[in-house]
Design the sequence.
């Protein structure tokens, strides 16, 4: 199984925060009539993608605060965003950023589904998901979906590791032709099964 090299914890934290800010920008600019638009996530409309990353945000806060999956149970299942997906996303993203600002955040142990990992390792996963789902939201809501060049660069090894790992195929589609593109954003998105 291919796994990405561990990123420097300070870089992970910075990238995760910046990906949250990028996605806050996209979510904040979804037009009122665009929440039900289709997205590159084939089974999810724009609101459903936002609900998914809110779900990741609330899990992050719980697990970084020492809770186990069993303790959380089904507390976060279902519709988390109600009639205010942008407001709920911004609130939960800011709660994540507050955790990341704590000096020991990257060295904490988080009990995720695959077992205990460091806060830095868990944050790597969430950085990629937050960045890419922000792009999904931007595309679905017809916004300029250009991602920050630095974040794309830092995310590339994570995307390559996913593309090289058949075990991730249940979560991500197979790489597209874009995965051979010389454009970094198109290349990253192609590694993750998206036509960018």
Sequence:
């Amino acid at each position: 199984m291919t796994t990405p090299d561990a990123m420097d914890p300070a870089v992970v934290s910075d990238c995760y925060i910046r990906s949250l800010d990028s996605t806050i920008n996209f979510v904040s600019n979804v037009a009122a009539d665009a929440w039900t638009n289709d997205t590159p996530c084939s089974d999810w409309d724009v609101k459903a993608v936002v609900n998914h990353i809110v779900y990741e945000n609330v899990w992050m806060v719980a697990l970084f605060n020492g809770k186990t999956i069993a303790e959380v149970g089904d507390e976060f299942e279902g519709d988390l965003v109600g009639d205010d997906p942008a407001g709920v996303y911004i609130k939960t993203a800011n709660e994540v950023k507050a955790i990341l600002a704590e000096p020991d955040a990257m060295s904490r142990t988080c009990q995720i589904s695959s077992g205990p990992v460091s806060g830095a390792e868990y944050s790597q996963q969430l950085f990629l998901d937050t960045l890419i789902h922000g792009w999904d939201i931007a595309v679905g809501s017809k916004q300029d979906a250009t991602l920050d060049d630095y974040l794309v660069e830092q995310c590339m090894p994570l995307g390559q590791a996913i593309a090289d790992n058949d075990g991730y195929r249940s979560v991500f589609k197979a790489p597209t032709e874009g995965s051979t593109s010389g454009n970094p954003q198109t290349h990253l998105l192609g590694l993750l099964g998206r036509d960018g």
